[in-house]
Automatic annotation (TrEMBL):
Keywords: DNA-binding, Transcription, Transcription regulation. It comes from the Bacteria. Residues 1-69 form the HTH gntR-type domain. It comes from Actinacidiphila acididurans. It holds the Pfam family FCD. This is FadR family transcriptional regulator. PANTHER family: TRANSCRIPTIONAL REGULATOR, GNTR FAMILY, UXU OPERON TRANSCRIPTIONAL REGULATOR. The keyword DNA-binding applies. Gene3D superfamilies: GntR ligand-binding domain-like (1.20.120.530), Winged helix-like DNA-binding domain superfamily/Winged helix DNA-binding domain (1.10.10.10).
């Protein structure tokens, strides 16, 4: 472990222990460096790294604070990292999605409110209207899934799935461009998910989501070499 890594670990321990809770202001740089037995240069490097990781934030003219540490903030960089993956790693992403998204959809079936259900239906209806517009269809496809995941009541799971889906959105666009039947199938699969949510049927929702994700994964595997 480098000296900078050790400095990062010491600050993270203060946060984990609750000594620096979410929203807390860090002591002045010199004081914190002295308290932790670090040089000011190492302290600056550690703070920079934790700012990049969204653990800390610098408020100009005020000081450095611990962020909210909410999942959507800490995991924000996941989507960017996913975009850099290459080759068969895209298939690994669909496997991860297949493992988690049905569970999240099942949770949503038991927790979704009428208001959230209306939001999901809005995007389903928009997908149907955009049947012949691949880009718009996929925009509402992604929004449909975000709405479902948000209603599951688990922000960590929703953020993880939203992050790994960023790369697969482009894959669905590609699929729509080369497979003219994909739009009809996609809408039918989303309708099945919506129907299960309306019925508040967790098992049916999981099954509908599994079929949908598995269809995409199967298509990618068949066309991967091409």
């Amino acid at each position: 472990m480098s000296l900078t890594d050790k400095a990062i670990a010491r600050i993270r321990e203060l946060i984990r222990s609750g000594e620096l809770p979410p929203g807390a202001k860090l002591p002045p740089e010199q004081q914190l460096a002295s308290d932790l037995g670090l040089s000011r240069n190492l302290m600056r490097e550690a703070v920079k790294a934790l700012v990049m990781a969204r653990v800390l934030e610098i408020r100009r003219g005020d000081g450095t604070y611990v962020t909210s540490l909410e999942p959507e903030l800490l995991l924000e960089g996941l989507g960017w990292a996913v975009e850099l993956l290459r080759g068969d790693k895209l298939l690994e992403l669909t496997e991860v999605r297949r493992l988690f998204e049905p569970i999240a959809t099942g949770l949503a079936a038991g927790r979704i409110s009428e208001e959230d259900l209306a939001g999901v239906k809005h995007h389903l209806d928009a997908m149907r209207r955009a049947r012949d517009d691949v880009e718009l269809l996929n925009k509402h496809d992604a929004a449909f899934h975000r709405a479902v995941l948000a209603s599951a009541g688990n922000s960590t799971l929703a953020t993880l799935l939203d992050g790994i889906s960023s790369r697969t959105v482009r894959a669905r666009v590609w699929r729509g461009l080369v497979d003219e039947r994909a739009g009809d199938r996609t809408i039918a699969e989303h309708q099945a998910i919506y129907n299960a949510l309306v019925a508040r049927d967790r098992a049916l929702a999981e099954a509908a989501a599994l079929i949908h994700v598995s269809t995409t994964e199967q298509w990618l595997r068949e066309h991967f070499d091409q």
